[in-house]
UniProtKB/TrEMBL annotation:
One of its GO terms (cellular component) is microtubule. Belongs to the tubulin family. Keywords: Cytoplasm, Cytoskeleton, GTP-binding, Hydrolase, Magnesium, Metal-binding, Microtubule, Nucleotide-binding. InterPro entries: Alpha_tubulin, Tub_FtsZ_C, Tubulin, Tubulin/FtsZ-like_C, Tubulin/FtsZ_2-layer-sand-dom, Tubulin/FtsZ_GTPase_sf, Tubulin_C, Tubulin_CS. This is Tubulin alpha chain. Its cofactor is Mg(2+).
Length: 496
């Protein structure tokens, strides 16, 4: 079996997204919460090859174990998985937790606490990779605003890139929303993690909670959406992205295709994601949308999973992944209709081509959930310059905090320096500029700046490593104190 994918869930947000994802993946592959499969053969209901081995390792006793690792620096969220409905599904050795919370501090996740759990995490990932015949890549689920999701995710991603330099790394990341904030220091963490991972991630699908809240309230009639409601939307998105690798079809898409078709330049790898239709069971009872209708819905700003307006920017690439009762003829008609619209603009240097994937396996809905079961759906991933709205918002919030050096001492006390903040902010300003220039067409200045940025990042990385080598952790200090105490004891015995 080839194309295996290893999922890495980091921090509270990443783990809770993972819970919803594995709930859905088990339903799609007819696997019970204890890992026992219901499949009588390898073909799905629609005559398609069903290959759960992409996400699951099949044991000798015919149990399916997720190729997934859960990591958090404090135990409570991982303990919920250990004691929950799916406790028998996961390998207990892949559920890792520390003893202290990262306290929404990037530096604690990257430096002091992250060091303690890094080796265990990497060893478990290496063991899963060794079980694969032809690993396709990694999917990382995390938030940009939390301490573990930002700091430890950055540290682990650097390590994975060193160990697996040619393997795809894709992220499903929750980005800070414009008006909803879970921590005051979210802007710091977000800028630092973007700076730290920009050269290690191949493609990052970002969503924000405010956009997901609005979709739940408007489309699903949920007045007070919970995180479970939001995470189930993310799970549907992750399912659509990977469906072609798990269910064979006439037009397949794999992880490498996303990079080839969505990322025109390595740094510009933050596509918007939209799913359609998102509707409640009551609405689905009265209507079923056609292929052109669900395609048009993808280009409406209110359906975006990040708060920005694509009509203000230019598209550089677009990928449409269809599932269910969809025929190529209808898809072609829908795309012709989209191209004819004046408010959808592509960059001058980019041909108005759409990467299309069609999978006849219909989307699955969680029983008792808010999402209706539909006969067809589409997931759109589009690389557009309008994403700079998200960068610009977070940069502005960062500047407000950092101008007063607010909360910086918490980061410096955990092994960072003020210079790290300045480097990260400068890198995000360059990212904004990169997107703006991409919309106009690359100039010679762009390539000169890119080369300068690359050299600066390499120097910063060397500086960080030198600092880490010269910095003692608490455990190092304790070992040194024990060693000195033993020397004192020996000297006292000698004098006696």
């Amino acid at each position: 079996m080839n194309n295996e994918i290893i999922s890495v869930h980091l921090g509270q947000c990443g783990i809770q997204m993972g819970n919803s994802c594995w709930e859905l993946f088990c339903l799609e592959h007819e696997i019970w919460p204890d890992g026992i499969g219901d499949m009588t053969d390898d073909c799905g209901d629609w005559g398609q090859q069903n290959t759960p081995e992409v996400f699951f390792h099949r044991t000798c006793c015919n149990r399916f174990v997720p190729r997934a690792i859960y990591v958090d620096l404090e135990p409570s969220v991982v303990d919920e998985v250990r004691m929950g409905q799916y406790r028998c599904l996961f390998n207990p050795q892949n559920l890792l937790s520390g003893e202290e919370d990262a306290a929404n501090n990037f530096a604690r996740g990257y430096h002091s606490l992250g060091k303690r759990i890094e080796e265990r995490s990497v060893n478990r990932i290496r063991k899963m990779a060794e079980q694969c015949d032809g690993m396709s890549g990694f999917l990382l689920f995390h938030s940009f605003g939390g301490g573990t999701g930002s700091g430890f995710a950055s540290r682990l991603m650097e390590k994975l890139r060193d160990l697996y330099p040619k393997t795809s790394i894709l992220e499903f990341s929750v980005y800070p929303a414009p008006k909803i904030c879970t921590a005051v220091v979210e802007p710091y963490n977000s800028v630092l993690v973007t700076h730290a991972t920009i050269e290690h991630s191949d493609c990052s699908f970002i969503v924000d909670n405010e956009a997901l809240y609005d979709i739940c309230q408007r489309n699903l009639d949920v007045d007070l959406p919970s995180y479970r409601n939001l995470n189930r939307l993310v799970a549907q998105m992750a399912s659509s992205v990977t469906a072609s690798m798990r269910f064979s079809s006439v037009i397949n898409v794999n992880l490498r295709d996303f990079q080839t078709n969505l990322v025109p330049y390595p740094r510009i790898h933050f596509p918007l994601v939209v799913s359609a239709p998102i509707m409640s069971a009551e609405k689905a009872y009265h209507e079923q949308l056609t292929t052109p209708e669900i395609t048009n819905a993808c280009f409406h700003p209110e359906n975006q999973m990040v708060k920005c307006d694509p009509r203000r920017g230019k598209y550089m690439a677009c990928c449409l992944l269809y599932r269910g009762d969809v025929v190529p003829k209808d898809v072609n008609e829908a795309i012709v209709s989209i191209k004819s619209k004046q408010n959808i603009q592509f960059a001058d240097w980019c041909p108005t081509g759409f990467k299309v994937g069609i999978n006849y396996q219909p989307p699955v809905a969680v029983p008792g959930g808010d999402l209706a079961k539909v006969i067809r759906s589409v997931c759109m991933m589009a690389n557009t310059t309008s994403i700079t709205e998200a960068w610009s918002r977070i940069n502005h919030k960062f500047d407000l905090l950092f101008s007063k050096r607010a909360f910086v001492h918490w980061y410096v006390g955990e092994g960072m320096e003020e210079e790290d903040f300045l480097d990260a902010r400068e890198d995000l300003a360059a990212l904004e500029k990169d997107y703006e220039e991409a919309g106009r067409g690359y100039s010679e200045d762009f390539w000169i700046r890119e080369e300068r940025n690359r050299h600066r990042r390499e120097e910063n990385k060397k500086k960080r490593r030198r600092r880490e080598k010269s910095t003692m952790t608490d455990s190092d200090l304790e070992d040194m104190q024990d060693f000195m105490a033993s020397l004192d004891a020996k000297e006292a015995r000698r004098l006696r």
